[in-house]
Structure to design on (473 residues):
């Protein structure tokens, strides 16, 4: 079926290119995104009032989409504040210092723990579970906060989510679209996920070590304080914790009990088959109960007021982090279902959303063979991931892979897996700033700086993985 592109598609694509250029040049993109929303609204409605209203409505849409992430980050930060003030955090992470003694061990240790955890209940809850526990250890042994965020991000939102071998949400979507059994896509993705994971994480580690040795590393905490990605207050920085009154024995018992409660969450997720928002809600509710219990024990008569105070601190932090992110996310959400919801059915009747149309159009103008097929699926997957949701475009990647596989006569599963890997690595949380929020916020770094730090390793990994896929097709 021929894909019909309108002026809206071309304007959207032009703004994407402009935004990517500005991000590479380390310039702020908020104003450009707002301008893009206005331009798209003007084309869609043909009225000044409609385009102006579209800006505000797109902000509301983005906020609703991101609210669960804002809340889980805010609650985890609030809980972390009271754990740090009472000294429970120090007691809790002390045993881990024997395993994470150097920056290198901290990078790989955090990465592997994040990957294993993310396989079972996806990366965002995993970040919330392990970030507050392992980050102080990593900082103490010399791993920058930004380096810890990179490790958590690449291993969790990259390796674990792109394979998704336990929950199997991603391979089911792509396999159904390609007309294949889920098992065949999962099997075909194994070598691609391994290659992508090894190349990207090793490249990121090498770049981090090189920059640290050359003295040009941009410290994560400093980036978070001065950049666009939110502010960590001084009390959230290591070494500036004012202990609250808590008996040493109580501190030790709580340091044991809190990890056990989160471990119980993991067990509950597995037994009850909780994933995505349900898993996040379980972690968030547990964090709120821990916050209340520890605050009442530590502050006693002032506990009621302090619970509210900690929650306010967490919410202020969460919205500071998301302040510059919401306008940018609002623009990219227009590439999917948000456009029709905000501006009506003004796209061509054959449209499946601006981003998906652009990806399908790309696949429609290239010749069908193995080499070009692999390149096209990688690029198409990456393009569909630009809206910050790695899952929104992987069905398109699966359908295009089916077309190429049929024309070539083989390699459908490999091409499907390649499109899945590209879409999720780009949109699932390693390159798009608002998709990076969980790891960035927990580690206290700018999501924009984290996206720039991930850019080269992920692009190198995608290039190598695409070449490997050419030989496997």
């Amino acid at each position: 079926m021929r894909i019909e592109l309108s002026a809206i598609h071309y304007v959207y694509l032009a703004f994407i290119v402009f935004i990517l250029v500005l991000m590479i040049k380390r310039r702020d993109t908020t104003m450009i995104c707002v301008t893009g929303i206005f331009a798209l609204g003007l084309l869609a409605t043909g009225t000044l009032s409609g385009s102006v209203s579209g800006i505000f409505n797109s902000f509301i849409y983005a906020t609703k989409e991101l609210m669960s992430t804002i809340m889980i980050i805010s609650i985890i930060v609030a809980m972390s504040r009271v754990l740090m003030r009472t000294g429970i955090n120090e007691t809790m992470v002390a045993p881990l210092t024997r395993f994470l003694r150097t920056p290198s061990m901290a990078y790989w240790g955090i990465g592997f723990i994040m990957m294993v955890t993310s396989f079972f209940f996806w990366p965002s809850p995993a970040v919330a579970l392990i970030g507050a526990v392992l980050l102080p250890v990593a900082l103490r042994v010399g791993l920058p906060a930004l380096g810890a965020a990179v490790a958590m991000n690449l291993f969790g939102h990259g390796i674990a989510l792109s394979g998704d071998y336990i929950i199997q949400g991603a391979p089911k979507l792509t396999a159904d679209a390609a007309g294949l059994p889920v098992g065949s896509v999962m099997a075909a993705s194994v070598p691609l996920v391994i290659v992508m994971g090894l190349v990207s994480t090793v490249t990121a580690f090498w770049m981090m070590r090189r920059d640290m040795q050359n003295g040009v590393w941009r410290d994560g905490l400093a980036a978070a304080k001065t950049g666009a990605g939110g502010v960590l207050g001084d009390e959230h920085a290591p070494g500036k914790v004012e202990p609250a009154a808590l008996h040493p024995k109580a501190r030790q018992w709580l340091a044991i009990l809190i990890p056990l409660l989160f471990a119980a969450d993991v067990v509950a997720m597995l037994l009850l088959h909780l994933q995505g928002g349900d898993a996040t809600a379980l972690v968030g509710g547990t964090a709120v109960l821990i916050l209340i219990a520890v605050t009442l024990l530590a502050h006693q008569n002032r506990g009621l007021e302090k619970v509210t105070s900690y929650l306010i601190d967490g919410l202020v932090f969460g919205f500071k982090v998301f302040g510059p992110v919401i306008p940018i996310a609002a623009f990219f959400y227009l590439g999917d279902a948000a456009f029709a919801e905000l501006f009506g059915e003004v796209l061509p009747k054959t449209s499946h959303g601006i981003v998906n149309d652009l990806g399908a159009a790309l696949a429609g103008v290239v010749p069908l063979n193995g080499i070009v097929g692999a390149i096209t699926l990688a690029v198409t997957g990456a393009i569909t991931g630009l809206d910050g949701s790695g899952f929104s475009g992987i069905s398109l990647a699966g359908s295009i892979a089916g077309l190429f596989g049929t024309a070539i006569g083989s390699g459908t599963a490999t091409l499907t897996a390649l499109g899945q890997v590209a879409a999720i690595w780009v949109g699932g949380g390693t390159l798009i700033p608002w998709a990076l929020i969980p790891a960035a916020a927990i580690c206290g770094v700018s999501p924009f700086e984290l996206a720039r730090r991930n850019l080269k390793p992920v692009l190198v990994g995608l290039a190598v993985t695409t070449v490997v896929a050419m030989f496997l097709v």
